[in-house]
Each structure stands twice: as C-alpha cells, then as structure tokens.
Amino acid sequence: MKPRQAFFDCLQRSPPALFEAALWIAAEHDPEVKPEALLANFKDLQQRVSVGLPMLPVSELGQPLLRRMNDLGFQQDEYTPLRPQAALLDKVLERRRGQPLALGLIALELARRLEIPLVGVNFPGHFLLRVPGADHLLDPCGGRRLYPGDCRELLQRQYGPNMLLHADHLLTAEPAQMLQRLSRNLRQLYLANEDNIGALIDAERVLELGNASASDYLARASLYQRLDCPNAERYDLEHALLLSEDPIQRIRLTERLGHLPPNSIVH
After folding, report:
1. What value, to the nearest 5°, has the Cα angle with vertex 37 and ends 112 and 7?
2. Of these four, 23, 112, 130, 173, which has the most CB atoms within 10 Å of its CB?
C-alpha cells in the first residue's frame, strides 16, 4: 500500500488513527520510514513517560504529561532557518525537537494510550492543547498554562496588536484539520528549503483533505510555476480565483492567468 493511501485509510478508522496518519506523511517523504516499526517503538516512550507521572486523577495529568515530555528532552525546534525535520514525526521522535504541532501530536498519542483526556486546538501560529472542560490551554512545548489573556498576548506577539482573539481560535481541532495543518507546515518548510518536489507532495495532500482555501490553490500554483507546468498552474489559479473574496487578489489572479500560454492538448 502506498503511503498516501495508508494515510487516508488511517483517517477512515473509527476513531481516526491520527498519529499513525502523521507517520505515513513522513513515510511519503522518505521510503526508509516504517510507521509500523515506529508505532512499536513508541511503547518505550510511553513507558518512560508513564513512570514519571504523579499519582493524580487522569483529568489532572495533561500538564504533567507535557512536563514529563519536556524532562525527557522534547522541546520546540529553535533552529534557524527551520527545516522539514521539525515537522516530520520520525525526525521529531529521534531528535526530540519539533514544531509545536509535531510535539502536540506526540503528546496526543501518549495521552490516548495512557487514557488522559487531551485535545488539540488549532490556535493561529502556535498549536495548543486542552484538557476538555479546563479554563486554560496548554503549550505542547513544555506544558505552560495559557489563560485568555495569555492567548491574546501570544496572538498579538505573532500577528501584531490589531489581531483580535476570537472564539474560533480556541475550538477543538478534528484529526483531518490537524493533519491538514501539518501538511501546510511541511509545504512551507520544503519550499523555504528550496525543495519544490517535497513541497508539492504536501501541497497536493492539503487539497485532497478538502476545505482548501484560495491560498492553498495559490501555493500549489506557485510550485507548478517553479516546475514549469503551465497547465497545472492555470488549473490552480482558476480555482483560487473562484474561492478568493479579496478584490485586489482577484485582479492579480486574472492578470496572472492572462500571461499564461493557452492550454495545450496532449494527444
């Protein structure tokens, strides 16, 4: 079975196999990655985390779980410029350095196995976690508690003082949403590291997961432009134009489409 098919098979399970699906994303980039072996080896990490947890009700173990991961060396990857290995779960498990989302996915899998209630939150710019019913969020990079004021400060630190905190920013993320965010992260990381083919793999997956935005189609169109594929570029620009609600962007997309050669027909 090809990694892309195995990835979507994981999403079709009930409940979806979130962590395994993320491992299949890594396998799509590197044939040497064996998700089955990584899942088996994960039991060792689970045991090491478990023995260090305090004797508390499971509903109170979300933060101790993240602190235990931090004690074992799991931290946010601060390397500049950031590389794809910060989002590929096999590399994050090996290096114990990663983006907040990658660390969060590992924490969610540990929580699932240890029956600790924990969910993901697709907070803008920095993936967060939450114990259901709690009045705060948790930073997967060490377990810091974030109350509404902290969330507002985090948001404005990344997007400027005019960015307002909305209830939508605090919603529980579904597995497909987290995996789409992971795919977008990888798309950007591969692009930043000038690996257009690697970025295209993730750009395609973003669209296949559904509910894609104009910017998602535009991102793939730009990759096709770099790869000199004008027909594919045109297809994505047309879809971006249909989805865009920005008048200025629509004008620019129309101009860009006008500069492309006519569709060629292959016989």
Report:
1. 65
2. 23
